[in-house]
Every structure is written in structure tokens, then in C-alpha cells.
Amino acid sequence: MKIIKNRSVLMGAAFLMATSAIGPGFLTQTTVFTQSLGASFGFVILSSIIIDIGVQLNIWRVIAVSEKRAQDIANMLLPGLGGFISLLIVLGGLAFNIGNIAGAGLGLQALLGVSVTKGAMISAALAIAIFLIREAGKAMDRFAQLMGFIMIVVIIYIAVTSAPPIGEAALRTFVPVKIDLITILTLVGGTVGGYITFSGGHRLLDAGVKGRGALQEVSTSAVMGISVASLVRIFLFLASLGVISKGLAIDAGNPTASVFQLAAGNLGYRLFGLVMFSAAVTSVIGSAYTSVSFVKSFSPKINRNENKVIIAFILVSTLIFILVGQPVKLLIMAGVVNGFILPVTLATILFAAYKTRIVGDYKHPVWLTCFGVLVVLIMTFMSGKVLYGMIF
């Protein structure tokens, strides 16, 4: 019974992480970058998958073995650091959630024909309903899995319908014509940056999957999460490539919707609405849950009323969207911003992995440490280069 329970929790954490990553920005970025890089975008996806797995394994393992959330680990390492990281995560999570609410509204508009505002309100109500259930954790796990499976099935269908040049995509994945550092930074940041990489790790902790004895399960869940997100990314890339290879013009105003419609007509447009809604509403849930998990250890009152605070977080995000409108630039820059946060959080976890007061006598794998340090250096270099380009 425990094995079955753990399997459900592991899948729930993996899908929570994956569906948190697969939001409106994820869908838009994948289509836009396929337009600009063509088949060579496969190399960017492969690079990001390798980096993502290294990041996830480092962070989730240290959280599990220390049996502490990321902000508490950071504060033990350097007093005040946890508060600083939490501030970055919460502000980023709130900003992203406004975009997620907008994306959910757009999805229901395409699927059901309702207005974007009404669609956003319906989506917010559904997300809030999850946290009104007594066993909200289990409900969140199951909902994330259901929406994840729906997205995978629909996007595979669109990819097959668009008939992409598989041979060229496979070749350019390993022998790219063009390499774009900003694109790699954006993809990594959008998949494991900001709050996203901690969503599954914190979920496992809350579900009681922790300690050195659970490391194998934690590692399996971490890799599963990246695999789900990557599977969606790969098939969406192939769907976009199939449309582009036929010389069809993609609408810059809503590129992903355009790909779905060009591949499968009006049915494709409706399916886009389903995928956009699924991606956005699960990201709303993941962002709210993880953002609040970063502050609940600072206040017993927040900890006792966690679900109420999560609901308030969703309500505030929805209200800002209704009053201000869709933050278009936010969706485009989401991955880049998260990419800036990633080196800070990953470096913190790597230092903590060697502090006995945090992890006891646990020995972090040397290869994971080396890989993590390499990722920190690469992401810092890329972030610096992008920032320099933005300023000058």
C-alpha cells in the first residue's frame, strides 16, 4: 500500500513540476523559437534537457535529505538569504501568475468562445476549488496528472497531423546550423528557473517523501518531471516545424494557436484552447502553491492557513489581470527572468550540500556537484551576456 501511495505522490510531484513549467510562456516560446531557429531548435531543447535534469537532481536531493524547504536551507547557510530568495520567488510567482490567469482566459476563449475575462474568472474559480478540498494535496496531484496527460495526447496528435521533417529535426538536434545562447537561457529558466524547480521538491516534502532512504524515489520523480515537460516541448517543436516546413505563415499575434489551426483546421484551434487552458490553469496552481510554500515557514499563522493564503494569492493575481490586462512582455521574458534567478538558488543548494549542520553525514555525488557548478557558471555567463546586451 505504501509503494502505491508513494508512486502516486512521486507522479504527482513530477507532474506538478512539469505542468508548472508548461504555461502560456512555454507554449509561445517554443513556437517562436522554432520559427527563428528551425530544425536547429532541437539542439537547444537537448541542451536544456541535460541542464534541467542536473539542476533538478541537485536541488530535490538536498531538499529531501535535509528535510527542509529551500528558504530554510538558505537561511541556515546565511541568515537572511532565505528571505531574499523567498522575496524573489514570491514576486516572480505573482507576476507569472497574472500571465497564467490571462493564458487560461485565452484558452477558454478559443475552446468555448467566452470572453478572456470570463475565461480567466472561471479558471481562477477552478484553481481555488482545488484548495477548498480537505485533501488539497492529493487533489492537486491528480489534477496536474490529468491535465498533463491531456496536453501530451493533444500535442502528439497535432505533431502527427503537421507531418514534420523528422530526419532533419533529428540531424539538427546534434548538428545545429545555428546556436542561440539567449534561447537556451530562456528554455532552462522557463523549465527549472524561479519557483518551478522547487514546486515538486516542496510537494514531496509536504507529502512526507524525505530522508536519505527516499533519495532513489526523489531522483526518479525529478527525472520524470523533466521528461514530461520535455516530451511536451519536443512534440510542440515538431508540430511547429511541420507547419513552418510547408511554408505556411504563422500569425505573430498568437503563434501557437496559428500552428494548431494550420495543422488541423478549426478542430486544431479548439484543441489549442484546451492545451492553453490546461497549461495555464495548472501553472496557476503550481505557482500559487510553491510561492506560498516559500513563506509559510516564516510565519506559523501562514503555515496554519496555507490553503487560504494560496486562494488569496490566486484571487490577487486574477484581480490584477482584470484591472490591468494581459502582461504580454511578461510572458515573453518569463524564462529569461527565471534564468537570472537560477544561478543564485542552485549555488545556494550546492553550498548547503556540504554543510553537515544541514545535511548531516550525507555525501552528495561528486558528479552532480561538478555538473551543478558547471550549470551555475554557464547560466551566470549567459545571464551576464544577455543583461549586457540589454543595457548596451
Provide an overview of this structure.
It is a multi-pass membrane protein. It is found in: Membrane. This is Mn2+ and Fe2+ transporters of the NRAMP family. The radius of gyration is 20 Å and the shape is globular. The chain is an all-alpha fold and 392 residues long. It has a single domain (2-391), classed as Up-down Bundle (Amino acid/polyamine transporter I), CATH 1.20.1740. The protein is built from 17 helices and no strands.
Give a quick precis of the structure.
The protein has helices spanning 2-21, 24-37, 41-66, 70-77, 81-112, 116-130, 136-162, 166-174, 181-192, 196-206, 215-245, 255-293, 300-304, 306-324, 328-352, 356-359, 366-391.
Largest sheet: none
Total number of distinct structural domains: 1
The amount of beta strand, in percent, is under 5%
- CATH homologous superfamily classification: Amino acid/polyamine transporter I
Overall CATH class: Mainly Alpha
Provide the gyration radius in Å: 20 Å
Mean pLDDT score:
87
CATH topology annotation:
Amino acid/polyamine transporter I
- Based on CA inertia axes, which overall geometry fits? globular
Order of helices and strands: HHHHHHHHHHHHHHHHH
GO biological process, one term: iron ion transmembrane transport
GO molecular function, one term: manganese ion transmembrane transporter activity
Transmembrane segments: 37-55, 76-98, 110-131, 143-161, 181-201, 222-244, 271-295, 307-324, 330-354, 366-391
Keywords: Membrane, Transmembrane, Transmembrane helix
